[in-house]
Amino acid sequence: MVSIRELHTQLVKKERSAVEITQEALDRIQAVESKIQSFLSITAEKALEQAKQVDAKIAAGEEISMLAGIPIGVKDNMCTKGITTTCASRILENFVPPYESSVTQKLFDANAVMVGKTNLDEFAMGGSTETSAYHLTANPWDLSRVPGGSSGGSAAAVAAEECVVSLGSDTGGSIRQPASFCGVVGMKPTYGLVSRYGLVAFASSLDQIGPFARSVEDAALLLNAIAGHDPKDSTSIKVEIPDYTANLRPDLKSHGKLKVGIIKETFGEGLDPEVAKAVNQAIEHFKSMGAEIQEISCPRFRYGLPSYYIIAPCEASANLARYDGVKYGFRAEDAENLLSMYTRTRAAGFGAEVKRRIMIGTYALSAGYYDAYYLQAQKVRTLIKQDFENAFGQVDILISPTAPSTAFKTGEKTTDPLSMYLIDLMTIPVNLAGLPAISVPCGFDSQGMPIGLQLIGNVLKEEQLLQVAYAYEQSTDWHSKSPKII
């Protein structure tokens, strides 16, 4: 699929119309969606109407934004006014939001074209998109494997060329891990850089919206559109947003001497040897590009997983308390009393993984356990953040594998929640510290499955992070490879 910049040039020169580009994306969805199942809903009518508006602007001689007429997928946990938003849960099966999320409003203001809402793990809880209440999404590189999660639909849609770019949300790796599994670029911005208004909450202190793309530049262009302060979001950072594409260069030398730190704790037991080999080759490539490489220790890195699986379920149990059958969403019928209605609604409306996390969170927050679990986890979170601060006192960028393995077979881990949780081992500490990070393709394993390289930047250092990722991408050809969907 051609890039955003190429499509923009074609539109401005009137070589193609926005309706033609949109119809091409919809035709692609029609052709492959039965195999991939990236989407929960296709918004063809809305997409074509948005495309017509772009063509009318061009015909009138008006300037258009870089995203105007560009087909985009949106994860189905972001509210879209008048369009069903389910979070892949039965409890929100018929929920139609009365308002627009800030990110989708920004996209529509830029005249982007939304082709559909993408599949996800229920309420973004999972690492494979297998907990969706509706259907499984397949990995475009191997239909018998998962696309990762929780933003698996968004990653698969971009990999399968059903849309040019898409939006996902990342709580513990839910953008970067599926980007790694599907061989695309996925970025989690600094916490607070992108508004969460209208993002259905999982864990409010960790959730962050970010872009999926086939290239670093396309991810940067999408970030340009969605980043910025939002008075509707109390955690939104008031900071000037640069043009993230302005200083993208195909080499590192123009950025001065770059110091790259290799996180020692991410190499060792549990890391697939083929993933380790590909990431080590990427490190050698950085060295050949002139980067100064040094090993960095983040001693509390391995405590990210246990602390996350206390903090996130605690926040989830509080956030999901609103789904009780009273205000909106699914309601169980024929309940004897109010308590019965609550319990029946939640028992029928929530899936097993969501129930598991609600139970863990409620237990950890209960009297007598709050100090022992939740408070201790928050203290560990602070220590993890301090480790990163110490690391960035020595280097500019940190590197690790994005995930300890490539995409696994569908159903392989569904009966073992702990092994599923371990897939986010490399990504979770970044969310706990609120840092920006990006996953870029860096190779393939012997089965032909993509491998991702995670680059981590300091707070609000997205510009530098994208520059480094772009330089690596342009000096390799991993990003140019596409799956052949049979």
How would you describe the overall organization of this protein?
The protein is an alpha/beta fold and 486 residues long. 37% of the residues lie in helices and 13% in strands. The protein contains 15 helices and eleven strands. The protein has helices at 4-12, 18-36, 44-59, 102-109, 152-159, 176-182, 216-226, 273-288, 304-319, 338-349, 352-365, 371-392, 417-421, 428-433, 462-474, and strands spanning 39-42, 71-75, 113-118, 165-170, 185-188, 208-213, 259-263, 292-296, 397-401, 437-444, 450-456. An eleven-stranded mixed β-sheet has the order 1-3-2-4-6-5-10-11-9-7-8, with helices on both faces. Helix 8 (273-288) links the parallel strand 7 (259-263) and strand 8 (292-296). The longest helix has 22 residues, at 371-392. It is globular. The two termini are 17 Å apart. The model has no long low-confidence stretch (mean pLDDT 96).
